[in-house]
């Protein structure tokens, strides 16, 4: 049989796809999918092949690695559907499908292999989008798919990772306190729609933003010259461009004759004044709302006891430490119209009394239902905390034969000592050992015997054959090894632990650069937050030091 490109093939692919002939499957695909898409036809052959490797009577689930066409082949030929949760779509962009035992996770993966497409040029054109859809030869493409079937696919045994085993249960169901609709409680304190993830323009959850009405209650307004003797309803800000910005009048201040001219110079020709019969049941003044929001936002180590200023509460650190942010809770809060909270960057190092966050209501009066919704988003815990630094006993182990022999003067110990002592950590042990894995191992053990609580090793972490620091550390019992970080300078940094004692491996770049990966990682470790591999990966965004001639770290983008 001649192929379309002139080559030959022994025969057509399987004459059946599941319970259908190929022609019957193509017709059924047209009815199910809307049209007989090439990807669905090829998917039929792939699913048919995968099923042939599943023993009779085995209950199986399915995974499609693309969201296009292939999932419909699974739903047509197996009991697995998106709706019943037996078919899961991991949109990896790969044309591959897997069927596996529900209970053991063992099964088979069928995937299109590009190196098998040489006899099928039209399939290659379609798969790689080498031609626009309208220019593709649909009849020839279907004919090649008929001939190729699953022969252009690899078939490999797979075993599912444990975290992906089990059903897709919804878990507990709750009524969203904002829109009242049922939703999975694991999504948070409000439903995802009310968190701002609705696909509909102008809507958040069940609310039409045009009807939310943040204008507040009707307030009494008087002309400035008629306000003598009245009490102001809110702080009024005076701005002197480039010089100052502060409240010239505070809430509850009684205005006198001399204030009239000052108000007018500020551009305040009318002012809100207190009213006796304000409907307090529906509305909350900005100051009171700010107090309630701050109390909910603030976690351990955060002082929110200050009085509102211009409708805003500023939160400060109760003690020195590392700022931690519950970014999901903060985002949920800020997605609610009418409230806001701004914070410093997560993992900022702060001293006692430094500002770390501020919150306020946007309108002068906030609806109680809106305030309640905002507070519920923080029901799972605060958004901002400050973790104190542990005063750990530090051991510094310098590796390098040239330093050990005195050929090169050691500069690591004073550099590392200055950095750890800045956090109040005493250096209780130092040692210099040659590039010998046994001696490195022994040096670590000696420090552990001396009761160190944090070990900092230096140098010997590059790709040079003589750098054996890592091997010596492993011999000493290093666990949870994380070698390499997306931070420059400091890509060769190593993290791990030995018997519960944290260890940081600092590369030689710390001798030259003032600011390195150590400056980002040391405070996290001292705060008990040694980063995981995934957390280290996130540091790549902002992890490039600009090596400014005048270093201003941490007042710069490095590590942000």
Automatic annotation (TrEMBL):
Gene3D superfamilies: 3.30.1330.130, 3.30.60.80, MoaB/Mog-like domain (3.40.980.10)
Coiled coil: none
MoaB/Mog domain boundaries: 395-527
Listed Pfam families: FmdE, MoCF_biosynth, zf-Tbcl_FmdE
SMART domains, A to Z: MoCF_biosynth
Domain of life: Bacteria
Protein name: Formylmethanofuran dehydrogenase subunit E
Organism: Desulfomicrobium apsheronum
